[in-house]
């Protein structure tokens, strides 16, 4: 019996040894040398060996090296170590093959161990090693080859007792090879993914194995089972699986090495898992390589360890080793490999190779492998490929369905997620908590509350309501639907709250812009739950992305730095978005530049930030950079870039992006389609918008709203109404945005009568009249169509008012030129407790600019600074325009942004301000400076520039700028540019050229063209051309009073008094009244207004006495009245007297009486100043020695020392 038992044990040991040899074939042998005592003994033995024995050993070693040379051909062969080595240059692909040399170099040169480096750091250090190798700066031993390198600082020393009489102290599973049987470590192959599955026979080295020592008794296990620490007491059953602290695991590992407890395959597997869990993948791999016996779980654990620490290339390399050593790929290992390609986000090619390999070995039918592939294709945005794979799968489980749903959700196709969920239930597959979480999230994103309640029914039926994950998803869904009370109810009913629960309830408040409530929940979370993660901070930062809440956002930014979360990509993205939404692009750019790691969302957010701040060129440059980096472009990336092309200037780039979307397979994406409709529409290509909409496989209300909005923006009310009717025919219900866009398309009294009133009736029938946005749009529509009374009536009848309704009535009054009423409404708005925003402040500043009331404008600017809007793009430019129109160029330059932060609108405002002040050369210089800074001029730029040339008499320069508009800058001439050219030619007396220009204009002439021509005819007394211009002007608008007045003036200047009388009689017959001239002066917060021949002012007697004094003084100085500007047929003396009744002279006399000596006088007039008044102001400024500023509707005249800034050309 004893002999049979011994024979049986011998066979078992033989089988184990054979199995171990087969499994270990081809692996890298990175084991330590045995004890230092044995090595020293071997060296002494070799030293005292006789000469013959040395010769034999040398021959034997030479033979061995010859075999190694045959085996390791190419650049990795080492050759005979006693002969001259052959040098081969290395590359980064030799990372695995020269790993021993690299580890030795790290220890000797850098004083660090390989195991202490992360995968990325090791790769970077290897690049330095390659440079040193290729420059032949290393020691000779590196080029000859190193068998084993020092990989860790841990001393794996195991003392072996060879006496059979004593109880062995080593665990039976620790096999020790004698020195003579040691095998040098094999080099790993380069990580060449193009040859991922290419077998190499020279890696299939034979591994020497020795029998296992006797088994160690289990007294250590009994001792550990009584340990008070649960992690240690459960070691017998669970190994290292329960260990939560690395130091505890290392201590247990030490006990195993000392032989205190048995150390079988199960314990080794859990040890590998433990080290990888703590991120010590080097130690995990060393443990794996040191295992004398492995099973499939060992290899799976090692593979999952690489994936866990994100060492994805190393996972690929490990898989290659397993294949080359003859190990059959398991479904778990391949699924982990696919997951590595999935999570890396940059190994799509390798993933495709793995897919091909799976087809070859027949593992594609495995449900786990198939599911991992589904997730892989979904991650890279190829949901159509994932769908095809899904349909071909012979077996599906709930995880399979859920993976495909996640893919569609990430792609933004939420309707498809719902369809997949319905199909899954139809096939009688019950969803788990992950499935329900995805579907509930989709319901929240779709805003489909009814569908969400149906899914809630499924949750209750399946008994998942107590599941924490499901409850968290319910909170998030209710928050997305605006049902914060229901979200709170679910939260308070939960027995257990995890971090996600707290994040969900904070998100519910944040989604509904309840900033203070969100922060209050955050306060509770920090005191009750204690744990706060990056998602918590990101959610709170989202709700702080407004000017009002930015102070909280900056505080949270400080907390981010304190918690060390600034390196978190998600937090960085949210910070970037917060500053962008709050109108702080500089801060957003700073966050982006300092982010240590950026993902696709980071790039998308920065592109969107540039678009939001109208920096389209920067947005497109950033998109191009993303494309050049070969990052995977999502539909969000393309959508943001398309938004940057939503004007005529970038339509070519927009078409290129359209082509890229088609190449990327995104043309069927609903969001991309909607963005394309918007882009073409905002560029004026509404026909292209309709074509895109027609070709879209699916359309929703956003699509139709985009098209209706495009027609509205391009003033196409009939087409907008047609699109609205087609939308109804398709069965898509209109929402409030549809109504707003439709109302925005009506802009004339005719539109109001034909369509606007009927749409108002439709609004009342459908109940949209209670929506505050629709109320605002109705107020705006009536005002735009000329019915300000109806706008005011609707506003007064509102039961509750909001900031947007106040802004609407303010804008309506501004549109009708009622500037004083606008300022009164601003005061009422503040009294009503409403917060002024960017819009209301911009309108108020614009009104102050039009009225040229500096003091009110300065007060508004102070309010802008107080409310924190000084960095707002539009508000700053409105303030600049206000100071420019009030003649305060120093203040314009003071608040002007620096050139590298200056928008095109700022450049345009600066050019316009210089032109209005008569600084025409500075206007030209500003234009050329704008070009030097890379800002492209637009329609408004050239209007300002041509206007400056016109008022400055720069005829040749103006014509040159006009010619360059389309040829150099691709800006098509519009009617405003043509008016400037006609005015330019007309003022200079080139009336014939002006008439020819009108005939050749690229756009039909309108009233502005003929009015400008008529004014020029008055200046140069061209009666015939003036008559023709007046006739054309009256054809366009028979009630235009300016046509009658200007033609009457032409007749008067040419002495045709009979014609003058006829024109005035015709005006009386048609009840057309001339706009009365008036001038005003503001002194001590009081505005004094004067009309022609003013009689009602309290100081009128003093004023006329002062005028008499002025008349006498300037006559003595050489003044002679130009009675051609007196447009009544009277004697010369009466004509001169009529000239002294002009309102601007009365205002001047009043100012001289009521202002201190030496102060600047400012007079404002609503009509163009006449030539004789201009002469009077020059003489007066020289006689009284004071600066006088006269502002008419077109420009400033600054009189000083008898001269005017306009050089008598205006």
TrEMBL record:
Pfam families xrefs: DYW_deaminase, E_motif, Eplus_motif, PPR, PPR_2
Keywords from the named record: Repeat
Record has Repeat as a keyword: yes
Biased composition (Basic and acidic residues): 49-73
PPR repeats: 295-329, 397-427, 568-602, 700-734, 802-836, 903-937, 938-972
Annotated GO MF terms: RNA binding; zinc ion binding
Compositional bias per record (Basic residues), positions renumbered to this chain: 8-17
All residue ranges annotated as the DYW domain in the record: 1118-1210
Listed InterPro entries: DYW_dom (IPR032867), E2_motif (IPR046849), E_motif (IPR046848), PPR_At4g14850-like_plant (IPR046960), PPR_rpt (IPR002885), TPR-like_helical_dom_sf (IPR011990)
Chain residue ranges for the region called Disordered: 1-84
Database matches in SUPFAM superfamilies: TPR-like
GO biological process assignments: RNA modification
Sequence similarity: Belongs to the PPR family. PCMP-H subfamily.
Protein name per its UniProtKB record: DYW domain containing protein
Organism lineage: Eukaryota, Viridiplantae, Streptophyta, Embryophyta, Tracheophyta
């Amino acid at each position: 019996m004893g002999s049979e038992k011994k024979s049986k044990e011998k066979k078992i040991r033989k089988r184990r040894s054979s199995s171990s040899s087969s499994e270990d074939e081809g692996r890298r042998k990175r084991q330590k040398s045995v004890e230092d005592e044995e090595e020293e003994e071997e060296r002494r033995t070799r030293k005292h060996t006789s000469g013959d024995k040395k010769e034999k050993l040398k021959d034997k070693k030479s033979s061995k090296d010859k075999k190694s040379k045959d085996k390791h051909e190419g650049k990795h062969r080492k050759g005979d170590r006693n002969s001259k080595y052959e040098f081969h240059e290395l590359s980064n692909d030799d990372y695995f093959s020269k790993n021993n040399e690299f580890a030795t170099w790290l220890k000797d040169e850098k004083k660090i161990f390989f195991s202490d480096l992360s995968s990325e750091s090791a790769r970077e250090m290897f690049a330095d090693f390659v440079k040193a190798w290729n420059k032949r700066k290393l020691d000779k031993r590196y080029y000859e080859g190193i068998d084993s390198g020092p990989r860790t600082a841990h001393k794996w020393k195991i003392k072996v007792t060879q006496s059979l009489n004593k109880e062995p102290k080593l665990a039976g599973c620790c096999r020790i090879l004698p020195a003579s049987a040691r095998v040098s470590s094999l080099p790993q192959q380069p990580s060449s993914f193009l040859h991922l599955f290419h077998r190499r026979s020279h890696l299939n080295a034979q591994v020497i194995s020795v029998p296992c020592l006797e088994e160690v008794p289990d007294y250590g296990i009994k001792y550990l089972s009584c340990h008070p620490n649960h992690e240690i007491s459960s070691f017998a059953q669970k190994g290292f699986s329960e260990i939560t602290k690395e130091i505890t695991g290392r201590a247990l590992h030490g006990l195993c090495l000392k032989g205190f407890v048995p150390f079988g395959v199960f314990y080794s597997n859990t040890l590998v898992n433990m080290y990888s869990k703590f991120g010590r993948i080097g130690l995990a791999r060393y443990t794996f390589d040191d295992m004398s016996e492995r099973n499939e779980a060992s290899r799976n654990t090692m593979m999952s360890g690489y994936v866990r620490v994100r060492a994805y290339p190393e996972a690929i390399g490990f898989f290659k080793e397993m294949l080359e050593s003859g190990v059959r790929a398991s479904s778990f290992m391949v699924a982990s490999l696919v997951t590595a390609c999935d999570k890396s986000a940059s190994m799509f090619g390798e993933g495709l190779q793995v897919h091909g390999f799976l087809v070859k070995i027949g593992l594609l039918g495995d449900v786990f492998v198939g599911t991992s592939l589904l997730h892989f294709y979904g991650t890279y945005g190829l949901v159509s490929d994932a769908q095809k794979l899904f349909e071909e799968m012979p077996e599906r489980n709930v995880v399979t369905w859920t993976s495909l749903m996640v893919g569609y959700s990430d792609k933004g196709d939420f309707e498809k997620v719902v369809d997949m969920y319905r199909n899954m239930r139809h096939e009688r597959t019950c969803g788990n908590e992950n499935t329900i979480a995805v579907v509930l999230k989709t319901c929240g994103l779709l805003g489909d509350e009814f569908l969400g309640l149906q899914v809630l029914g499924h949750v209750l039926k399946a008994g998942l309501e107590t599941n924490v994950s499901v409850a968290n998803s319910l909170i998030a869904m209710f928050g997305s639907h605006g049902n914060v009370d229901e979200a709170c109810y679910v939260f308070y009913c939960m027995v257990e709250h995890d971090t996600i629960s707290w994040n969900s309830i904070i998100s519910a408040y944040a989604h509904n812009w309840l900033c203070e409530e969100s922060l209050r929940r955050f306060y509770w979370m920090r005191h009750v739950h204690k744990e706060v993660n990056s998602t918590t901070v990101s959610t709170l930062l989202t709700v702080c992305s407004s000017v009002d809440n930015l102070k909280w956002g900056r505080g949270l930014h400080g907390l981010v730095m304190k918690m060390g979360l600034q390196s978190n990509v998600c937090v960085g993205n949210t910070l970037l978005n917060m500053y962008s939404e709050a109108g702080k692009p500089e801060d957003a750019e700073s966050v982006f530049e300092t982010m240590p790691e950026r993902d696709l969302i980071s790039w998308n957010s920065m592109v969107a930030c540039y678009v939001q701040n109208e920096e389209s060129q920067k947005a497109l440059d950033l998109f191009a950079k993303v494309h050049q980096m070969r990052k995977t472009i999502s539909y969000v990336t393309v959508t943001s870039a398309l938004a940057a092309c939503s004007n005529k200037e970038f339509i070519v780039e927009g078409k290129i992006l359209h082509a890229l979307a088609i190449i990327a397979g995104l043309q069927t994406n609903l969001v991309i389609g909607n963005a394309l409709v918007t882009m073409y529409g905002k560029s004026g290509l509404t026909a292209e918008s309709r074509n895109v909409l027609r070709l879209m496989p699916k359309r929703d209300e956003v699509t139709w709203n985009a098209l209706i909005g495009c027609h509205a923006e391009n003033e196409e009310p009939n087409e907008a109404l047609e699109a609205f009717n087609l939308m109804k025919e398709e069965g898509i219900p209109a929402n409030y945005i549809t109504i707003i866009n439709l109302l925005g398309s009506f802009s004339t009294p005719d539109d109001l009568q034909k369509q606007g009133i009927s749409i108002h009736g439709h609004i009342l029938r459908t109940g949209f009249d209670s929506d505050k946005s629709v109320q605002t749009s109705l107020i705006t529509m009536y005002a735009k169509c000329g019915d300000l009374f109806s706008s005011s009536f609707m506003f007064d009848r509102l039961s509750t008012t909001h900031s947007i309704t106040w802004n609407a009535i303010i804008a309506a009054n501004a549109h009708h030129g009622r500037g004083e009423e606008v300022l009164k409404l601003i005061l009422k708005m503040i009294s009503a407790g409403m917060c002024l925003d960017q819009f209301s402040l911009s309108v108020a500043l614009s009104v102050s600019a039009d009225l040229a009331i500096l003091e009110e404008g300065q007060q508004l600017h102070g309010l802008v600074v107080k409310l924190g809007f000084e960095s707002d793009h539009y508000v700053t430019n409105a303030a600049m325009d206000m100071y420019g129109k009030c003649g305060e160029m120093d203040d314009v330059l003071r608040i002007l942004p620096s050139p590298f932060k200056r928008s095109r609108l700022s450049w345009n405002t600066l050019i316009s301000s210089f032109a209005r002040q008569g600084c025409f050369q500075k206007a030209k210089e500003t234009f050329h400076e704008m070009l030097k800074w890379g800002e492209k001029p637009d329609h408004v730029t050239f209007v300002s520039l041509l206007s400056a040339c016109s008022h400055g008499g720069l005829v040749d320069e103006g014509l040159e700028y006009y010619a360059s508009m389309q040829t150099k800058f691709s800006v098509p001439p519009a009617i405003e540019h043509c008016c400037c050219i006609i005015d330019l030619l007309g003022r200079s007396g080139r009336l014939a050229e002006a008439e020819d220009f009108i005939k050749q204009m690229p756009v039909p002439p309108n009233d502005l063209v003929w009015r400008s021509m008529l004014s020029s005819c008055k200046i140069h007394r061209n009666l015939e051309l003036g008559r023709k211009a007046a006739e054309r002007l009256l054809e366009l608008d028979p009630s235009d009073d300016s046509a009658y007045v200007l033609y009457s003036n032409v007749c008067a200047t040419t002495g045709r008094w009979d014609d003058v009388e006829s024109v005035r009689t015709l005006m009386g017959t048609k009840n057309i009244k001339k706009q009365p001239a008036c001038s005003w002066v503001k002194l001590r917060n009081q505005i004094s207004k004067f009309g022609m021949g003013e009689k009602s002012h309290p100081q009128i007697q003093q004023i006329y006495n002062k005028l008499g004094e002025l008349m006498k003084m300037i006559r003595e100085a050489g003044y002679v009245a130009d009675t051609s500007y007196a447009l009544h047929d009277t004697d010369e003396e009466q004509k001169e007297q009529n000239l002294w009744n002009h309102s601007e002279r009365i205002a001047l006399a009043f100012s001289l009486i009521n202002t201190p000596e030496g102060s600047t006088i400012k007079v404002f007039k609503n009509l163009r100043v006449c030539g004789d008044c201009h002469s009077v102001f020059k003489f007066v400024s020289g006689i009284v020695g004071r600066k006088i500023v006269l502002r008419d509707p077109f420009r400033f005249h600054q009189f000083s020392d008898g001269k005017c800034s306009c050089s008598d050309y205006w």
